[in-house]
Amino acid sequence: MALRQLSIVTIRRGIKPIVFVICLIPLSIAIARIFGLFESYIGGLGANPVESLMDYLGQWGLRFILIALLVSPLQKLMRIAWLGQFRRMLGLFAFTYVLSHFLVYLLLDQGLALQYIIEDVLERPFITLGMISLTLLTAMAVTSTNGMRRRLKANWQRIHYGTYVVAILGVWHYWWQVKSDIAEPAIYALITFLLLGSRVVFKILQKRKRQASAKDQNG
Ligand code: HEM
User: Fold this and answer.
1) Is residue 58 part of a domain?
2) pTM of the shown model
3) Residue among 93, 117, 115 at smallest CA distance from 106
4) Residues 174-211: tens digit of each pLDDT
5) Is residue 2 one of the residues assigned to a domain?
6) Share of the chain above pLDDT 70, in %
7) Which atom of ligand 1 lies nearest, measured to the CA of 59?
Protein backbone atom coordinates (compact mmCIF):
# COMPACT_ATOMS: atom_id res chain seq x y z
CA MET A 1 0.00 0.00 0.00
CA ALA A 2 1.38 3.43 -1.04
CA LEU A 3 0.75 4.97 2.39
CA ARG A 4 3.18 2.49 3.95
CA GLN A 5 5.98 3.40 1.59
CA LEU A 6 6.02 7.20 1.77
CA SER A 7 9.51 8.62 1.34
CA ILE A 8 11.38 10.33 4.20
CA VAL A 9 11.27 13.59 2.20
CA THR A 10 7.44 13.45 1.87
CA ILE A 11 7.12 12.78 5.60
CA ARG A 12 9.63 15.43 6.71
CA ARG A 13 8.67 18.18 4.24
CA GLY A 14 4.99 17.39 3.68
CA ILE A 15 3.24 15.55 6.48
CA LYS A 16 5.24 16.72 9.51
CA PRO A 17 4.69 20.47 8.91
CA ILE A 18 0.95 19.83 8.33
CA VAL A 19 0.63 17.86 11.58
CA PHE A 20 2.62 20.57 13.39
CA VAL A 21 0.23 23.31 12.20
CA ILE A 22 -2.82 21.19 13.13
CA CYS A 23 -1.39 20.70 16.65
CA LEU A 24 -1.07 24.47 16.99
CA ILE A 25 -4.78 25.09 16.30
CA PRO A 26 -6.06 24.63 19.91
CA LEU A 27 -3.27 26.91 21.19
CA SER A 28 -4.13 29.54 18.58
CA ILE A 29 -7.79 29.35 19.62
CA ALA A 30 -6.75 29.87 23.27
CA ILE A 31 -4.68 32.92 22.31
CA ALA A 32 -7.50 34.34 20.12
CA ARG A 33 -9.94 33.88 23.03
CA ILE A 34 -7.57 35.69 25.42
CA PHE A 35 -7.57 38.68 23.06
CA GLY A 36 -11.31 38.37 22.36
CA LEU A 37 -10.77 37.74 18.64
CA PHE A 38 -13.28 35.97 16.34
CA GLU A 39 -15.58 35.47 19.32
CA SER A 40 -18.64 34.81 17.18
CA TYR A 41 -16.82 31.88 15.51
CA ILE A 42 -14.74 30.30 18.26
CA GLY A 43 -16.58 31.46 21.40
CA GLY A 44 -15.14 33.43 24.29
CA LEU A 45 -13.78 32.64 27.73
CA GLY A 46 -17.11 33.34 29.46
CA ALA A 47 -17.82 34.64 32.95
CA ASN A 48 -14.82 32.91 34.55
CA PRO A 49 -12.04 33.42 31.99
CA VAL A 50 -9.13 32.06 34.07
CA GLU A 51 -10.92 28.81 34.94
CA SER A 52 -12.18 28.43 31.41
CA LEU A 53 -8.68 28.93 29.93
CA MET A 54 -7.13 26.53 32.46
CA ASP A 55 -9.76 23.86 31.72
CA TYR A 56 -9.36 24.26 27.97
CA LEU A 57 -5.56 23.86 28.10
CA GLY A 58 -5.79 20.95 30.60
CA GLN A 59 -8.25 19.14 28.31
CA TRP A 60 -5.93 19.56 25.31
CA GLY A 61 -2.93 18.46 27.38
CA LEU A 62 -4.73 15.23 28.23
CA ARG A 63 -5.91 14.76 24.64
CA PHE A 64 -2.35 15.08 23.33
CA ILE A 65 -1.04 12.60 25.91
CA LEU A 66 -3.63 10.10 24.65
CA ILE A 67 -2.96 10.93 20.98
CA ALA A 68 0.78 10.31 21.59
CA LEU A 69 -0.12 6.96 23.19
CA LEU A 70 -2.24 6.08 20.14
CA VAL A 71 0.79 6.17 17.82
CA SER A 72 2.20 2.74 18.76
CA PRO A 73 -1.02 0.71 18.44
CA LEU A 74 -1.88 2.50 15.17
CA GLN A 75 1.62 1.81 13.87
CA LYS A 76 1.19 -1.89 14.62
CA LEU A 77 -2.40 -2.24 13.42
CA MET A 78 -1.88 -0.38 10.15
CA ARG A 79 1.72 -1.59 9.71
CA ILE A 80 2.91 1.95 8.97
CA ALA A 81 6.40 2.24 10.44
CA TRP A 82 6.81 6.00 9.84
CA LEU A 83 3.94 6.86 12.20
CA GLY A 84 6.53 6.41 14.97
CA GLN A 85 8.24 9.59 13.78
CA PHE A 86 5.29 11.63 15.13
CA ARG A 87 5.51 10.34 18.70
CA ARG A 88 8.07 12.91 19.86
CA MET A 89 6.25 15.85 18.28
CA LEU A 90 2.94 14.81 19.82
CA GLY A 91 4.57 14.25 23.21
CA LEU A 92 6.13 17.70 23.09
CA PHE A 93 2.76 19.23 22.23
CA ALA A 94 1.25 17.40 25.21
CA PHE A 95 3.96 18.95 27.37
CA THR A 96 3.35 22.44 25.87
CA TYR A 97 -0.39 22.29 26.60
CA VAL A 98 0.03 20.92 30.13
CA LEU A 99 2.74 23.48 30.88
CA SER A 100 0.45 26.29 29.64
CA HIS A 101 -2.34 24.85 31.83
CA PHE A 102 0.06 24.95 34.80
CA LEU A 103 1.27 28.49 33.96
CA VAL A 104 -2.33 29.77 33.89
CA TYR A 105 -2.80 28.20 37.34
CA LEU A 106 0.51 29.62 38.63
CA LEU A 107 0.26 33.14 37.24
CA LEU A 108 -3.42 33.94 36.68
CA ASP A 109 -5.26 31.70 39.15
CA GLN A 110 -2.82 31.91 42.08
CA GLY A 111 -1.04 35.18 41.15
CA LEU A 112 2.31 33.47 41.86
CA ALA A 113 1.47 33.34 45.59
CA LEU A 114 4.00 30.60 46.38
CA GLN A 115 2.72 29.92 49.90
CA TYR A 116 -0.83 29.18 48.64
CA ILE A 117 0.53 27.13 45.76
CA ILE A 118 2.61 24.93 48.11
CA GLU A 119 -0.45 24.55 50.38
CA ASP A 120 -2.55 23.62 47.34
CA VAL A 121 -0.04 21.01 46.15
CA LEU A 122 0.19 19.47 49.63
CA GLU A 123 -3.46 19.66 50.65
CA ARG A 124 -5.48 19.08 47.48
CA PRO A 125 -4.76 15.56 46.22
CA PHE A 126 -5.85 16.30 42.64
CA ILE A 127 -3.27 19.12 42.46
CA THR A 128 -0.61 16.76 43.92
CA LEU A 129 -1.39 14.27 41.12
CA GLY A 130 -1.20 17.07 38.54
CA MET A 131 2.22 18.12 39.86
CA ILE A 132 3.55 14.54 39.77
CA SER A 133 2.42 14.07 36.18
CA LEU A 134 3.81 17.45 35.11
CA THR A 135 7.18 16.50 36.68
CA LEU A 136 7.23 13.20 34.76
CA LEU A 137 6.19 14.94 31.56
CA THR A 138 8.97 17.52 32.02
CA ALA A 139 11.56 14.73 32.48
CA MET A 140 10.37 13.16 29.22
CA ALA A 141 10.38 16.47 27.32
CA VAL A 142 13.91 17.33 28.51
CA THR A 143 15.24 13.88 27.53
CA SER A 144 13.38 13.72 24.22
CA THR A 145 16.34 14.71 22.02
CA ASN A 146 18.39 12.18 20.00
CA GLY A 147 21.52 13.14 21.97
CA MET A 148 19.81 12.39 25.30
CA ARG A 149 18.51 9.10 23.91
CA ARG A 150 22.05 8.06 22.98
CA ARG A 151 23.48 9.19 26.32
CA LEU A 152 20.83 7.59 28.54
CA LYS A 153 20.78 4.25 26.68
CA ALA A 154 18.45 1.75 28.47
CA ASN A 155 17.43 4.38 31.05
CA TRP A 156 15.86 6.45 28.27
CA GLN A 157 13.22 3.79 27.64
CA ARG A 158 12.61 3.50 31.38
CA ILE A 159 11.97 7.26 31.67
CA HIS A 160 9.72 7.24 28.63
CA TYR A 161 7.58 4.38 29.95
CA GLY A 162 6.41 7.22 32.23
CA THR A 163 3.93 8.18 29.49
CA TYR A 164 1.58 5.49 30.79
CA VAL A 165 1.83 6.83 34.34
CA VAL A 166 1.28 10.40 33.09
CA ALA A 167 -1.89 9.31 31.24
CA ILE A 168 -3.29 7.50 34.30
CA LEU A 169 -2.45 10.36 36.68
CA GLY A 170 -3.82 12.93 34.20
CA VAL A 171 -7.19 11.15 34.01
CA TRP A 172 -7.23 10.64 37.77
CA HIS A 173 -6.41 14.35 38.30
CA TYR A 174 -9.38 15.26 36.07
CA TRP A 175 -11.73 12.72 37.67
CA TRP A 176 -10.90 13.87 41.20
CA GLN A 177 -11.73 17.52 40.64
CA VAL A 178 -15.05 16.94 38.85
CA LYS A 179 -17.91 17.69 41.22
CA SER A 180 -20.89 15.84 39.73
CA ASP A 181 -20.89 14.83 36.06
CA ILE A 182 -18.14 12.24 35.61
CA ALA A 183 -19.10 11.45 32.00
CA GLU A 184 -16.12 13.25 30.41
CA PRO A 185 -13.35 11.95 32.68
CA ALA A 186 -14.96 8.49 32.36
CA ILE A 187 -14.56 8.69 28.57
CA TYR A 188 -10.88 9.65 28.98
CA ALA A 189 -10.45 6.78 31.48
CA LEU A 190 -11.98 4.30 29.00
CA ILE A 191 -9.71 5.52 26.18
CA THR A 192 -6.65 5.25 28.47
CA PHE A 193 -7.69 1.74 29.50
CA LEU A 194 -8.10 0.67 25.85
CA LEU A 195 -4.75 2.21 24.83
CA LEU A 196 -2.85 0.58 27.68
CA GLY A 197 -4.76 -2.69 27.20
CA SER A 198 -3.83 -2.77 23.52
CA ARG A 199 -0.15 -2.63 24.51
CA VAL A 200 -0.54 -5.64 26.77
CA VAL A 201 -2.32 -7.54 23.95
CA PHE A 202 0.44 -6.65 21.43
CA LYS A 203 3.12 -7.75 23.90
CA ILE A 204 1.39 -11.13 24.45
CA LEU A 205 0.96 -11.66 20.69
CA GLN A 206 4.61 -10.74 20.10
CA LYS A 207 5.77 -13.21 22.77
CA ARG A 208 3.62 -16.00 21.28
CA LYS A 209 5.00 -15.30 17.80
CA ARG A 210 8.57 -15.46 19.12
CA GLN A 211 7.87 -18.72 20.97
CA ALA A 212 6.26 -20.22 17.84
CA SER A 213 9.19 -19.29 15.61
CA ALA A 214 11.68 -20.63 18.20
CA LYS A 215 9.71 -23.93 18.21
CA ASP A 216 9.81 -24.05 14.40
CA GLN A 217 13.57 -23.54 14.40
CA ASN A 218 14.17 -26.21 17.05
CA GLY A 219 11.81 -28.75 15.53
C1 HEM B 1 -0.18 15.91 33.02
C2 HEM B 1 -0.57 16.91 33.81
C3 HEM B 1 -1.97 17.50 33.82
C4 HEM B 1 -3.05 17.21 33.04
C5 HEM B 1 -3.17 16.19 31.91
C6 HEM B 1 -4.13 18.07 33.48
C7 HEM B 1 -5.40 18.07 32.94
C8 HEM B 1 -6.50 18.72 33.50
C9 HEM B 1 -7.85 18.58 33.06
C10 HEM B 1 -8.30 17.71 31.87
C11 HEM B 1 -8.63 19.34 33.87
C12 HEM B 1 -10.14 19.48 33.83
C13 HEM B 1 -10.60 20.43 32.78
C14 HEM B 1 -12.11 20.58 32.78
O15 HEM B 1 -12.73 20.65 33.85
O16 HEM B 1 -12.67 20.67 31.68
C17 HEM B 1 -7.76 19.97 34.83
C18 HEM B 1 -8.18 20.82 35.82
C19 HEM B 1 -7.34 21.46 36.69
N20 HEM B 1 -5.98 21.35 36.75
FE21 HEM B 1 -4.81 20.12 35.63
N22 HEM B 1 -3.68 18.87 34.51
C23 HEM B 1 -2.36 18.56 34.74
C24 HEM B 1 -1.52 19.15 35.64
C25 HEM B 1 -1.89 20.16 36.49
C26 HEM B 1 -1.01 20.86 37.38
C27 HEM B 1 0.50 20.63 37.49
C28 HEM B 1 -1.76 21.77 38.06
C29 HEM B 1 -1.35 22.75 39.11
C30 HEM B 1 -0.39 22.60 39.95
C31 HEM B 1 -3.13 21.63 37.63
C32 HEM B 1 -4.20 22.37 38.10
C33 HEM B 1 -5.51 22.19 37.73
C34 HEM B 1 -6.63 22.88 38.33
C35 HEM B 1 -6.57 23.90 39.47
C36 HEM B 1 -7.79 22.43 37.68
C37 HEM B 1 -9.23 22.80 37.98
C38 HEM B 1 -9.66 23.97 37.18
C39 HEM B 1 -11.07 24.31 37.56
O40 HEM B 1 -11.26 24.84 38.65
O41 HEM B 1 -11.95 24.03 36.77
N42 HEM B 1 -3.16 20.66 36.66
N43 HEM B 1 -6.46 19.57 34.60
Assistant:
1) yes
2) 0.94
3) 117
4) 999 998 899 999 999 999 999 999 999 999 999 999 99
5) no
6) 99
7) 10
Nearest-atom index, ligand 1, CA of 117: 30
- Residue 55: CB within 6 Å of ligand 1? yes
Q: CB of 105 closer than 6 A to ligand 1?
A: yes
Give pLDDT, residue 216.
85
Secondary structure (3-state) at 79: coil
Q: Which residues contact 138 (CB under 8 A, 6 or more apart)?
A: 95, 99
Is the model's pLDDT at 96 over the cut of 90? yes
Residue 129 carries which DSSP code? H
Please report the pLDDT score of residue 79 as a whole number: 92
- Whether 128 lines ligand 1, by a CB cut-off of 6 Å, is no
Residue-number span of the structural domain to which 14 is assigned: 7-210
Q: Do 91 and 138 meet the contact criterion of CB atoms below 8 Å apart?
A: no
Specify the number of domains making up the chain: 1
174 CA distance to ligand 1 centroid (A)?
6
Q: Is residue 157 part of a domain?
A: yes
Whether 137 maps to a domain, the answer reads yes
Q: Is the CB of 73 under 6 A from ligand 1?
A: no
